């Protein structure tokens, strides 16, 4: 899909501040003309940094996001549900890998990104620091979390950095299946016994607000949005996407016969959108800071998986060294 090969002969990027105004102007004109910026093209260092930050955090979210659902694989209620969930979780792993590759094209290695995650320097989505208590949570994750992810990711197919945009095309197709499988679980539970319907409602109550938080701080408090919109990394703001998600999801909840846990939720005829209540931003920032037991469990699980996989990486390196030695001998 894209290459992870870096131009080893390229000179180090000019430090921020000392960048050539002519290069910046040419870059901005390309972005304004909706051209894709490719790995070997010149780009401002700040553009490279913000993309590396966003793409690597996105990748970490996909990988950490496998954990809450993985927790329910062995307890899926039927073989069919288990097979679907397994495929979905494997897709998330694939998304993480495409995204790490896209971020690597910006000059940061996979090891550096993983180290940033494991040492707590890099973020991942707050949503994955909430626990999955029962099977209805798996429905709510697919319906709401994947639903929010698609809302955010569809515009990223037109992000200005080519490798990120192309990775998003396939990711969005798969997320759309994930959202439907989640909605299908919710539909089965909402039409099931009173106890099952109550579980579906309880899951909606617990996942609704964290799903709205996935879109990030409000535009007034989002330090990166203005510049990212200018560079067409982000095509829509956090609040615009959050509003779209609310507008799309309310009718789905109605179809399920479930109640969104927000007394302030109301259709606003004048705006042509739903009004909704205030998000608890203190909770959002506490979760971003990794407070609470689930964040610690998540990182413990990721570090263990990385350490357990060390022999696979060593074997792959040894295989590659042998292959390279054979090719060198054949060429001599
Ligand atoms: N969680 O100035 P902004 C998925 C941080 S994939 C944690 O608004 P920006 C698939 C932000 O990084 C879900 N941190 O930042 C799946 C920044 O920190 P920094 C992930 C958050 O980048 C489903 C600071 O706050 N999706 O779910 C969050 O312009 C089911 C200030 O914020 C993506 O990553 C948060 N929710 O906008 C997998 C999509 N929100 O680094 C498994 C790509 C904000 O400056 C199961 N990313 N922060 O210190 C984006 O679109 C953007 O990066 C935003 C944030 C919108 C997330």
Automatic annotation (TrEMBL):
GO cellular component, as recorded: cytosol
Protein name: Ring-1,2-phenylacetyl-CoA epoxidase subunit PaaA
InterPro entries listed in its UniProt record: Aromatic_CoA_ox/epox, Ferritin-like, Ferritin-like_SF, PaaA, PaaA_PaaC
Superkingdom: Bacteria
Pfam families cross-referenced by the UniProt entry: PaaA_PaaC
GO molecular function: phenylacetyl-CoA 1,2-epoxidase activity
Species of the source: Rhizorhabdus histidinilytica
GO biological process terms held by the UniProt record: phenylacetate catabolic process
């Amino acid at each position: 899909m894209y290459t992870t090969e870096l131009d080893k002969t390229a000179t180090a990027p000019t430090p921020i501040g000392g960048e050539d105004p002519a290069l910046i102007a040419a870059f901005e004109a390309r972005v304004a003309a909706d051209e894709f910026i490719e790995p070997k093209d010149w780009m401002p260092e700040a553009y490279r940094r913000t993309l590396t930050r966003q793409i690597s955090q996105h990748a970490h979210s996909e990988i950490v996001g496998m954990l809450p659902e993985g927790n329910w694989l062995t307890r899926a209620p039927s073989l069919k549900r288990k097979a679907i969930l397994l495929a979905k979780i494997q897709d998330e792993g694939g998304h993480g890998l495409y995204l790490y590759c896209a971020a690597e094209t910006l000059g940061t290695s996979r090891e550096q990104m993983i180290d940033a995650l494991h040492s707590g320097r890099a973020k991942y989505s707050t949503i994955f620091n909430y626990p999955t208590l029962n099977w209805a949570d798996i429905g709510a994750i697919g319906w709401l979390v994947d639903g929010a992810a698609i809302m955010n990711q569809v515009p990223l197919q037109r992000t200005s950095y080519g490798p990120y945009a192309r990775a998003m095309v396939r990711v969005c197709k798969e997320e759309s299946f994930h959202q439907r499988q989640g909605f299908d679980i919710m539909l089965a539970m909402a039409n099931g016994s009173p106890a099952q319907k109550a579980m579906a409602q309880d899951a909606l109550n617990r996942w609704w607000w964290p799903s709205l938080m996935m879109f990030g701080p409000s535009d007034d408090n989002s330090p990166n949005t203005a510049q990212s919109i200018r560079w067409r990394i982000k095509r829509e703001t956090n609040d615009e996407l959050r509003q779209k998600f609310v507008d799309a999801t309310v009718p789905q909840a109605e179809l399920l016969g479930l109640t969104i846990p927000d007394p302030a939720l109301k259709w606003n005829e004048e705006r042509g959108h739903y009004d909704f209540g205030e998000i608890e931003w203190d909770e959002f920032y506490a979760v971003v800071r990794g407070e609470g037991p689930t964040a610690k469990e998540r990182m413990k699980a990721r570090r263990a998986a990385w350490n357990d996989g060390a022999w696979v990486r060593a074997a792959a390196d040894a295989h590659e060294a042998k292959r390279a030695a054979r090719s060198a001998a054949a060429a001599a």
